[in-house]
Amino acid sequence: xxxxxxxxxxxxxxxxxxxxxxxxxxxxxxxxxxxxxxxxxxxxxxxxxxxxxxxxxxxxxxxxxxxxxxxxxxxxxxxxxxxxxxxxxxxxxxxxxxxxxxxxxxxxxxxxxxxxxxxxxxxxxxxxxxxxxxxxxxxxxxxxxxxxxxxxxxxxxxxxxxxxxxxxxxxxxxxxxxxxxxxxxxxxxxxxxxxxxxxxxxxxxxxxxxxxxxxxxxxxxxxxxxxxxxxxxxxxxxxxxxxxxxxxxxxxxxxxxxxxxxxxxxxxxxxxxxxxxxxxxxxxxxxxxxxxxxxxxxxxxxxxxxxxxxxxxxxxxxxxxxxxxxxxxxxxxxxxxxxxxxxxxxxxxxxxxxxxxxxxxxxxxxxxxxxxxxxxxxxxxxxxxxxxxxxxxxxxxxxxxxxxxxxxxxxxxxxxxxxxxxxxxxxxxxxxxxxxxxxxxxxxxxxxxxxxxxxxxxxxxxxxxxxxxxxxxxxxxxxxxxxxxxxxxxxxxxxxxxxxxxxxxxxxxxxxxxxxxxxxxxxxxxxxxxxxxxxxxxxxxxxxxxxxxxxxxxxxxxxxxxxxxxxxxxxxxxxxxxxxxxxxxxxxxxxxxxxxxxxxxxxxxxxxxxxxxxxxxxxxxxxxxxxxxxxxxxxxxxxxxxxxxxxxxxxxxxxxxxxxxxxxxxxxxxxxxxxxx
Length: 677
Description:
Helix content is 35%, strand content 18%. It has 4 domains: 37-136, Killer Toxin P4, Chain A (2-Layer Sandwich); 150-247, Gnk2 domain, C-X8-C-X2-C motif (Killer Toxin P4, Chain A, 2-Layer Sandwich); 329-419, 2-Layer Sandwich (Phosphorylase Kinase, domain 1), CATH 3.30.200; 426-666, Transferase(Phosphotransferase) domain 1 (Transferase(Phosphotransferase), domain 1, Orthogonal Bundle), CATH 1.10.510. It is an alpha+beta fold. The chain has 17 helices and 25 strands. The strands form 8 sheets. It has a 5-stranded antiparallel beta sheet. ATP binds at residue 373. This is Cysteine-rich receptor-like protein kinase 10. It is a single-pass membrane protein. Residues 1-32 form the signal peptide. It is found in: Membrane.
């Protein structure tokens, strides 16, 4: 007779095995999981002809990368294809914790889609949650690249941001040191935040980097997190050569051994193999009880476990990508709620009014203050377009952008709900004699830097590439600490990631801030916003209005005025007199220099906002020599251009920060905040 097996041990072992496997699936992507696409960048570089040598080499390279996503290569592989000018360099990197199967699937998916997202581009890089894949016509192996980059964060803020930010900074710093000194260039870290909540961190570099280059890349990524994501309970900063991420839930696979759950306690049956029912004298077999109860226990435990995993994964996905996963329902408010928050849109709550509607201050029952833009019924935008545009603006999340909290769409009512910004717009402080003195030089420099970072986010760091098209001092709001927040996205335009410019027959914007190629030919790009930023920067330094600047004996516009002083070596005479001598001469000269570079007549001569931010934050960057800026700011030169386009939906406003006779803006869409608040 063979060995006897206990029914209890077989069932108990089965439960333990099933629960153990289910638990592992919760902690890590199980076999068959799909890679999660994040972002693709197609730099504005040269292209290759279809069916040519470069394309053939690229196809060979991508095939080689896909076939080498094997356990032997440990999630990283680089190679080349072709020779001479048609050589293609490529690599893939899988996240250090993903399974071999998921790594292979991710690389395969990336190789199949990258050429579709970047058709005929010689340079491309695509990121998934589980891997990255890149190629170029120039060798980048073992070279630390920090651009292009992007960031993502959880819009839920922490209750104690100061303490949380300190913990995140400390732990990511420790992790960077660990990763840089490791052979795999990958590590994770877990730390206690509260008695019931932990912090989970991950950092990784491409293994071909040296320790010092890896450390430099990670430190740069970590330093960006306070800029984009301060106080967020989860965020990531991603660069071609490295990435860092932290969350308050375990988003990576726990590779340490997980102890199997203890066997379920089963009481030992009596030696008689019978139990007596109370007071009945009936006998029930122990085997019968086990046969009935245990399957029920198994079913309940398995359903609970898989149910928890399913809900957990849904929650993780939503948290990871933040606002961009929110549906319409999470952003839409009832009209009654908004009316109650504004005391039924009472005049006492009105804080601004423009051609497309009025702005009201409001407060939700939880105490949150809001700014409510109630669009007029002749705003000219349909319900679908309004909803889509509201969803677009709500996706823009940055400390230097005014945040759209939601919208209301009921009947003919179209309402936008923004965060309330305590102070008014920058022009109120810059050009108001009573408020002027509050803007000392450190505050002005902070406003310049913050506005530059907000614009850089729109151009490069958000998942959408946005051209603002109407940046000016009245569209920069100031919070309680006089930190800048760019507002009014009514004229904004979305670009494709690899799109560099666009054309329009309808010129909209503000006199004096428009770049010449936009005002004269309808061509706009990120460099159009750079031009507007340069004008705004020079206004902040000089304290003079660009829109109404006129000095008949010296210059006809602000740019000419600045250029003449710069040429004559008297640039410091441009500084706002109210500052006296209380300013940094080096910073002022640098700002004037940057302002002139941003307003160059030739688009190619203007820097990108990434370069501007670098110049503002570094004293070691060599600035190019500026040439004469574009000079065309008088309203006479615009009159034919502005009125030459289509006419529907136009509105001309009188800006409180400009002269009353100077028309300032032509709006073509409804999402706009025309008055400071």
